[in-house]
Amino acid sequence: MNIFFLLSLLLLPIFSLLISRRRRQPSERVPPGPLGIPIIGQSLGLLWAMRANTAEKWIADRAKRYGPISKMSLFGKPTVFIHGQAANKFVFTSDASKMSNQQTESVKMILGDRCLLELSGEDHKRVRNALASFLKPDSLKNYIGKIEEEIRRHLQMHWQGKHRVTVLPLMKTLTFNIICSLLFGVERGARRDTFVQFFQEMIEGMWSIPVNIPFTRFNRSLKASAKVQKLLKDLIHEKRIELEKGASPHQDLITCLLSIRGEDNLELVSEHEIIHNVMLIMVAGHDTSSVLITFIIRLLANDPNTHAAVLKEQEEIKNSKPSGDYLTWEDLGRMKCTWRVAMETLRTVPPVFGGFRKTLEDIEYEGYIIPKGWQIFWVTSMTHMDDKVFPEPSKFDPARFENPASIPPYYYIPFGGGARICPGYEFAKIETLVTIHYLVTQFTWKLCCNDNCFRRDPTPAPTQGLPIQIVSKKAL
Ligand code: HEM
User: Fold this and answer.
1) H helices within 24-158, ranges in order?
2) Which fold has domain 3-472?
3) How far is CA 369 from CA 84, 88, 263, 384, in A?
4) CA-to-CA distance for 168 and 292, rounded, in angstroms?
5) Residue located nearest, by CA, to atom 8 of ligand 1
6) Would you state the pLDDT for residue 27?
7) Which residues line ligand 1 (CB under 6 A)?
8) Tens of pLDDT, residues 115-130
9) Is the pLDDT of residue 8 over 60?
10) Mean pLDDT across the chain, nearest whole number?
11) Ligand 1 test: best mutation among 94, 131, 383, 415, most atoms within 8 Å of CB?
């Protein structure tokens, strides 16, 4: 490609940004802090800090330097960073006509403009309700067996007979397989393997600077996204034919979405919306739960008391059932100690670092003006580490969650809050509890690498993916 064309690709957005800045000088009352150089701003600083496991410190240093509300430029957009309980409440409860969800340009270009993250108002409600009809507990109850089958098969294939495994890539494979089977009805085989390959390429460039230049992560992601969309289009076509032949609408998420009809008896969710939201769920559902399970496994290896408590609870459940029986919804309800361990893991290592909103008009917040069209950047970790609510915040202590009512609202936000609170919460809970049940009752393990660090890319990943030595207690 011609170098001048490449340069113009790079410079065009910079010129347009400079021109639009000259037209619209930010008000005197915008929060303090530099916007940095156009397009790049502070993006590289934050991305580097994430990869060096210093993102929390990077954020805290900014807060110390510029105060609780400051401006910066992230991923090509002027951004206001706010934190604390009041800030979380402000973000999660703001009127949708004043503040909409905002993804970085790269996420929007890769996942598509009809995914839930890009929708607002009635469109958001309509698509979210359709997804929730599949992801709500009453519906998920019927799929515990299917999730369990994937977990049993995974352990047989990747853990049984092995002495050493690397946890994070295996948990990504497991959660991806659960999603493929349960949400998209794609069974094991060549098609699932192709999905995995394109999907991994797609996800790699999601948090990058959105300049589409060949050989960059972003460029590879965009290409992979186009291939995933094509595969999904074919899949939807096949499922439509199956439904017309009388197949059950409750096979998987896609058949469920295709079957929901509006008052006019037409499909309530368009084909584009199905494709874009299926891609969103692939990303939102697999990178998060896999991280949670990985960090629980690391914690259980490091903390014998917590391991003993979780093992006791899971052994009791196992011994109360005939051998080989599937877990029931009631069994999951008895896994209270295990879920408290998961909640404390989510507090200390939240898989989602934070998110963005966009102002639809000038908004006044704490005496400052956040101009129309700017991003608002919220982060999960700041209130999770607030010692007013979580004494000795660096200590791992699942007992904090024995009485959830003692935690004031908007302090504990691993799943976000308000109208956009994570709709996959129950799904994540089921896959985490069932996986931990099988792991602690079937295996013992110890860490091969005692380095307790991790980097964010953008989800947290332990050093070397968490290699462990395992011993099987008995054959599955
Ligand atoms: C431990 C696991 C998970 C964590 C920590 C997590 C966390 C989050 C967070 C922080 C948000 C953003 C909320 C906001 O912007 O206010 C979110 C949104 C979302 N999550 Fe999850 N998530 C998890 C698992 C899942 C799973 C398993 C699925 C799907 C099966 C899922 C689907 C979604 C979707 C579709 C959204 C967008 C909701 C909207 O914009 O209305 N998540 N999640």
Assistant:
1) 43-51, 55-66, 85-93, 105-111, 121-135, 137-140, 144-158
2) Cytochrome p450 (1.10.630)
3) 18, 17, 43, 27
4) 10
5) 415
6) 57
7) 101, 116-117, 128, 280-281, 284-285, 288-289, 292, 346, 351-352, 355, 414-417, 420-424, 427-428
8) 999 898 899 999 999 9
9) no
10) 89
11) 415
